[in-house]
Amino acid sequence: MKFLWTPSSHFNLANLFTFVNITAGLAATYFITQNNFILAIILAWIGGAFDIFDGKIARKYNLSNEFGVQLDSFADFLSFVLVPVFLIFQASYATELSGAWLILAGFVSIYYVISGLRRLIHFNLHADAGEVDKYFTGVPTPLGAIILWLVYLGNAYALIPAFGVIGCMLLIGWSLNSTIKVKHL
Questions:
Q1: Which tens digits make up the pLDDT trace of 53-94?
Q2: Which of 75, 111, 149, 160 has most Cβ atoms within 10 angstroms of its Cβ?
Q3: Which residues, at least 6 apart from 152, have a Cβ–Cβ distance to it below 8 Å?
Q4: CATH code of the domain in which 49 resides
């Protein structure tokens, strides 16, 4: 069990929490394909909780390493970029849009995915394992996902039409790589 507390271990406690985030993201993706959006959202939020704790555990027990930084970004890409985009595409766009609007929604979804991936790569290139800045530059992908979940809910309760979801996704995608300062919690 010493491997749980060894910073160089790929299976230290912090990374195990990240693996749970990845598992939750993969399961959420599966349930989106089954149109079980409630379970997919619950799993995504579980992944989000484990994302919060993996970093706190890594810092508290000095378990941060380059592998963990890369692993966390992969988990973030899956849980906070791909899952919300798949959810919105399956639950909103595919059911409400057709023709040119659906193609536009597809391009905006791809833009969001590329924006999220770019943000995570940029973050990794400029992050030091175990270091935490006071502010993020640009909206972090977990916050982007939370905003997208709110947009999804707005659409699910007929407050935001699918056309509005496209605009929101475009704006949130832009904000991921903007100069907006967001306080790190």
A1: 999 999 999 999 899 999 999 999 999 999 999 999 999 999
A2: 75
A3: 84, 87, 88, 91, 92, 165
A4: 1.20.120
